[in-house]
Amino acid sequence: MIVRPKTGWFRMLFAWEHSVRNTILAPLGIIFLLSLAALWGYRRSDAFFLCLSPVPFSLIGVALAIFASFRNNACYERYWEGRKQWGVLSCATRDLARYAVTVPSPAAAPSDVRHLVNTLAAFVHVLKHQLRGTDPSRALHEFLGDAHARDVLRRAHRPQYLLTCVQRQLASWRRDARIDDILLAAALAHLDRLSQAAGACERIRTTPVPYPYEVLLHRTTYFYCVLLPFGLVESIGWATPIVTVFIAYAFLALHTIAGELEDPFGQDANDLPLDALSIQIERAMRDTLGDRDLPPAAVPDARYRLD
């Protein structure tokens, strides 16, 4: 995620860092060259065969803008839902950590409480790795120790197994009469929220925007931008390259941004900062235990990127 301070309107015009320019510079360069070719052909020959009427481009442009906005809205909804689910993860894990510290009576052994909190922290980090398709081994060994980490790594669905481990600890406290049935039900409700949030994230991750829908917009956008200079050259003349590149920039940038937001859990510059969110949750739970040696809070780097 790009996190940068607000700038004035003039500086914003030249803010290129982490924009989509690197992705679309090559297509824009090709469209600029086509605009020059259209201008050269129009000036050299009145019968230039690709001098088209601008009227269809107006109608197609409006339809294409509406179509692109629908796709952008769909992709941004996936991005925003992913952020909301990680908000649920943050609240539920902190609630369970506070529950483990304050509710059991007589108080649970500090080692048991710390193990439960470490298991919740491992759950968050393992879910992050699962959504990104990366290796969670280091995080598991750090939070759970070697033996328990190896046991978790053998599982097919590691986040769900970690929630099972938390539930076993809660059930053990119930058997020891440290919590009653009502308090156990309250804790299990928080576990259900964690499970549902993890399932929602997995649904977003494994259900892409329908491929034919994306291909149709991709082809239509590029076809429109390639033919656009030949439709504008007769009416605006020398301004054709500038106007064409500006319009193409708007359409291609929207198309590229939607593609990045489609998978909000990836590692692109504009995806959700799952590393930062995981560390934030871990810090909150360890602070509940009274720890003072907390992991440093994640901050944007020199290029304003927060991972």
Automatic annotation (TrEMBL):
<dbReference type="InterPro" id="IPR044669">
    <property type="entry name" value="YneE/VCCN1/2-like"/>
</dbReference>
<feature type="transmembrane region" description="Helical">
    <location>
        <begin position="47"/>
        <end position="70"/>
    </location>
</feature>
<keyword id="KW-1133">Transmembrane helix</keyword>
<feature type="transmembrane region" description="Helical">
    <location>
        <begin position="20"/>
        <end position="41"/>
    </location>
</feature>
<dbReference type="GO" id="GO:0005886">
    <property type="term" value="C:plasma membrane"/>
</dbReference>
<keyword id="KW-0472">Membrane</keyword>
<keyword id="KW-0813">Transport</keyword>
<keyword id="KW-1003">Cell membrane</keyword>
<keyword id="KW-0812">Transmembrane</keyword>
<protein>
    <recommendedName>
        <fullName>Bestrophin</fullName>
    </recommendedName>
</protein>
<dbReference type="GO" id="GO:0005254">
    <property type="term" value="F:chloride channel activity"/>
</dbReference>
<dbReference type="Pfam" id="PF25539">
    <property type="entry name" value="Bestrophin_2"/>
</dbReference>
<keyword id="KW-0406">Ion transport</keyword>
<comment type="similarity">
    <text>Belongs to the anion channel-forming bestrophin (TC 1.A.46) family.</text>
</comment>
